[in-house]
Specification:
Number of helices: 9
Order of helices and strands: HHHHHHHHH
Radius of gyration: 17 Å
CATH superfamily of the largest domain: Winged helix-like DNA-binding domain superfamily/Winged helix DNA-binding domain
Largest sheet: none
Strand content: under 5%
Number of strands: 0
CATH class of the largest domain: Mainly Alpha
């Protein structure tokens, strides 16, 4: 009889995730995502949407560095340390964006390129690359500019001659499509164009 992942201890979940059990990662995210969101919102004064983005980034990074977890501190502390670095990276990215607003968005590095992603194997394992490909060009550009590069809705609206409301709707639908795509990939379903959000070409 299989033991449900919710009954696993943290160390068991870590070992299982390292061994390739994606459901162990899902359970860790279920346990610690609320703490990461609360930490990002309170410690770094982030809005709810950005705090959720930090949580997503945190668990992608967590998988890539689980082999460094030695149990000397609690897993919660380890996770929040990763979240803190993600928040600082976001802050630095926003500062860099303000210094270099004229850089075209289409010159940003390809997220599937190992040079821009310290753990490309994690991206592949989570099917992020394939799911991003299913988004429209505009939705993909807006989502990456917001999540990875730290552009504000106002900055994106000004650069792409859109209203702030339109930018928000496209990013919201893109995130929802990505979540649906990743859930289907985790269940072994085929990723297809039916997941494309409404949001332009």
């Amino acid at each position: 009889m299989l033991i449900p992942h919710r009954l696993f201890g943290d160390e068991q979940l870590v070992a299982s995730w390292v061994a390739g059990d994606s459901r162990a990662g899902d359970e860790l995210a279920r346990r610690y995502r609320p703490a990461v969101v609360q930490f990002a919102a309170h410690a770094y004064h982030l809005d709810p949407d950005t705090a959720q983005e930090i949580a997503q980034t945190t668990f992608v990074r967590l998988h890539s560095c689980l082999h460094t977890f030695r149990g000397k501190a609690s897993l919660r502390t380890f996770v929040l340390s990763i979240a803190s670095h993600a928040c600082l990276d976001l802050r630095r990215g926003r500062a860099a964006t303000r210094r270099d607003r004229e850089k075209p968005l289409d010159e940003a590095p390809d997220p599937s390129d190992g040079r821009s992603d310290p753990a490309p194997q994690v991206v592949l394992s989570l099917d992020l690359g394939r799911c991003l490909e299913q988004l429209t060009e505009r939705a993909r550009t807006l989502l990456l500019a917001r999540v990875r590069d730290g552009w504000s809705y106002e900055e994106l609206a000004g650069r792409l001659e859109m209203t702030v409301g339109s930018v928000g709707r496209v990013i919201h639908e893109a995130r929802r499509a990505m979540q649906q795509c990743l859930e289907q990939a985790n269940e072994g379903e085929e990723i297809g164009p039916s997941l494309r959000p409404r949001g332009g070409k």
